[in-house]
Amino acid sequence: MDNLEQFIRDNREELDKYNPSPEIWNRINRAVNPRRRSVRFRYSAAATVILVLGTTIILLVANQKKDPDYRAGNTIQPSLKETELYYNSLVNSLYREATPLMTSQPEVEKELKIDMAQIDSICADLKKDLKDNIANQEVIEALIQNYRIKIRLLEDMVNLLKQNEVEKDKNKSHEL
Length: 176
Prior knowledge:
2 domains, mainly alpha, 8 helices
């Protein structure tokens, strides 16, 4: 036995009457067990991350539900939405150009409306397919092809109507 142990055994009663304060025991405990504090810190950090992520997800879902396309069930990709806007504006522009030329030919206007309705019906079917399978590139390409057909039809119609106008003007200038 060493001298310190012998001294403690001999003077045990005198040493036991002095108790250290709880603050000292806390410092000793922290020095001996630094892990306990780091575990609490990790749990706190994990809880904070979960709270922030949960709040973010809730806010994103709430904002998405406010989107009119989401409420209508349209889950069209943003790039496709831009393409749709482009082609629709082009179709509207060509239709506005053709409208004054068709006033003298109501049968042509009627036929054009029927053709456009058929193309629109096909477009609606393609959009349904697109909702079912958003990643299907073939459906997207078919939708774009549908818009191109619509534009080609309108361009041809406008060109024919303009030719008819020019021919009428030529015939009028040759008449006496």
